Amino acid sequence: MVQYHRLIIHHGRKEERFRVSVEEVGSLKKAKQKFLSFLFLTILSCCFIVSPYLFGFSTLSLLDSFSRENEALSSYEPAPVCLEVSNGTICCDRTGLRSDICVMKGDIRTDSASSSLILFTSTNNTTTPQKIKPYTRKWETSVMDTVQELNLIPKHSNKSSDRVCDVYHDVPAVFFSTGGYTGNVYHEFNDGIIPLFITSQHYNKKVVFVIVEYHDWWEMKYGDIVTQLSDYPLVDFNGDSRTHCFKEATVGLRIHDELTVNSTLMSHGNKTIVDFRNVLDRAYTHRIQSLVQEETKTKLDSKKPKLVILSRNGSRAILNEDLLVKLAEETGFNVEVLRPNKRTEMAKIYRSMNTSDVMIGVHGAAMTHFLFLKPKSVFIQIVPLGTDWAADTYYGEPAKKLGLKYIGYKIMPQESSLYYEYGKDDPVIRDPDSLNDKGWEYTKKIYLQGQNVKLDLRRFRETLARSYDFSIRRRVREEVPHLFVS
Ligand SMILES: *[C@@H]1O[C@H](CO)[C@@H](O)[C@H](O)[C@H]1NC(C)=O
Ligand SMILES: *[C@@H]1O[C@H](CO)[C@@H](O)[C@H](O)[C@H]1NC(C)=O
Ligand SMILES: *[C@@H]1O[C@H](CO)[C@@H](O)[C@H](O)[C@H]1NC(C)=O
Ligand SMILES: *[C@@H]1O[C@H](CO)[C@@H](O)[C@H](O)[C@H]1NC(C)=O
Ligand SMILES: *[C@@H]1O[C@H](CO)[C@@H](O)[C@H](O)[C@H]1NC(C)=O
Ligand SMILES: *[C@@H]1O[C@H](CO)[C@@H](O)[C@H](O)[C@H]1NC(C)=O
Ligand SMILES: *[C@@H]1O[C@H](CO)[C@@H](O)[C@H](O)[C@H]1NC(C)=O
Ligand SMILES: *[C@@H]1O[C@H](CO)[C@@H](O)[C@H](O)[C@H]1NC(C)=O
């Protein structure tokens, strides 16, 4: 069962259409179950070091959300709702297109058995009960249907003995779900980690994260990042039947746009996506230092710029990758081919990206790792037939906002494996939009799962040369900045 959605948003004067299609949620769940048994076996056998990235899914590369002839769900300007919440009240901001968020203050106690947060008040009728699903894909009903709903219940009581606090917290809580599409690296960053940063960074780590639909593997994979945002252990809401008491709680996460942080929408401070990247850098510093110490490998010639290829196999692979590597080396690059799999540690991917000048990859969820590139690096996304809109919206535009030099390399029909399968006159080649118009199943089967790329290296050489020149000029500028002061 494949779900398909259209949302018509009336946004000011402008009517914006936003359409996304999603991968079958059930199959994702099954995949997760498989991973859980894998985790179990791994722990039993203890054969190798458990790494945070071990149970990641980035290589599944199901870019579930997809669209055509669209405009993106634009960034919106929420009224500053619920910034000041008075004691004993619940305030919900439901003006966002991508997420709802509720803030409550007072005597808050959890009751996971009834999926509730109870706000005890000493006066009657001060606030109304609310329901909220703390996940950031509000417009996609099919996935929201799978997300656990929380009840926020005000309760009058003059006896504080109503519910005894098992755990008393002196700092605020942020409640969010790691259900939905969690399991795909694009969604993990876009719907989870970046919104978590947006919602919680101003607490300066004095905040407790309470996770609804918690997974051990998520904590292992993202623990390094989470500890940069919170000094406190995570609370597994459903798995912990104790009553946790807070004085303040935010339920749900704020989100801006695709894979970005918009500083003008930050209610506390003017943080940007670069600040988010700095959090990643701090998160991986320790691990990378120990990796460097373990190493005996000879160092690469650091005078040359480094190019990393994020390699896929299965679908959307580069069929002549070996020749591409040779060409890049001839152009003057040190080349690293990265084939992240389920066991690749996140810190190792970060390290490869953070030391690269150029990243090349074919459109897919693994492109999310552009977030690991240093600003002013070059990101070349190879855009297969029929994927222009998604490539640009999900990765191209966000990459520019991080300060990368983005190059979308749109392939010619002859560079697609589909050209040889269907022939040059087939609508699949001539008019991908007409196929995309037929529905997500067509897009997915033909363009995402059925396509490989054989680069025309005479054509691609230009892109490589441009990237090389750009990298050299950037290095010179950084190494001898005084020459460029006017
Ligand atoms: C940030 O949000 C504001 C307000 O919605 C918008 O006008 C602006 O274009 C956004 N900036 C970026 C870089 O998207
Ligand atoms: C807030 O409300 C709770 C319960 O309604 C009360 O115990 C607490 O003292 C109040 N705090 C402040 C700062 O008014
Ligand atoms: C508040 O409501 C409770 C139950 O609904 C009732 O017992 C109590 O008398 C009310 N108190 C006031 C001050 O109205
Ligand atoms: C509380 O609200 C209910 C219905 O909204 C109303 O009937 C009742 O009179 C209110 N009580 C107080 C004490 O305001
Ligand atoms: C709160 O106190 C009032 C009077 O002191 C009493 O009538 C009422 O029943 C109490 N309510 C609860 C819920 O204990
Ligand atoms: C952000 O705010 C800080 C302090 O308020 C200020 O120093 C800095 O210049 C601001 N940065 C931007 C990009 O506005
Ligand atoms: C990333 O690269 C920068 C600049 O080369 C370096 O200062 C930083 O320590 C690196 N980050 C990590 C986590 O290794
Ligand atoms: C992809 O590569 C892995 C090992 O790198 C291999 O096990 C797997 O079979 C490959 N998949 C395809 C479809 O070629």
Automatic annotation (TrEMBL):
GO cellular component labels: Golgi membrane
A Pfam family recorded for this sequence: Glyco_transf_61
Limits of the Glycosyltransferase 61 catalytic domain: 288-380
Transmembrane segments: 35-55
Domain of life: Eukaryota
Membrane topology term: Single-pass type II membrane protein
Alphabetical keyword list: Glycoprotein, Glycosyltransferase, Membrane, Transferase, Transmembrane, Transmembrane helix
InterPro entries: Glyco_transf_61_cat, Glycosyltransferase_61
Transferase recorded as keyword: yes
Compartments it resides in: Golgi apparatus membrane
GO MF annotation: an example: glycosyltransferase activity
Protein name as catalogued: Glycosyltransferase 61 catalytic domain-containing protein
Organism expressing this protein natively: Brassica campestris
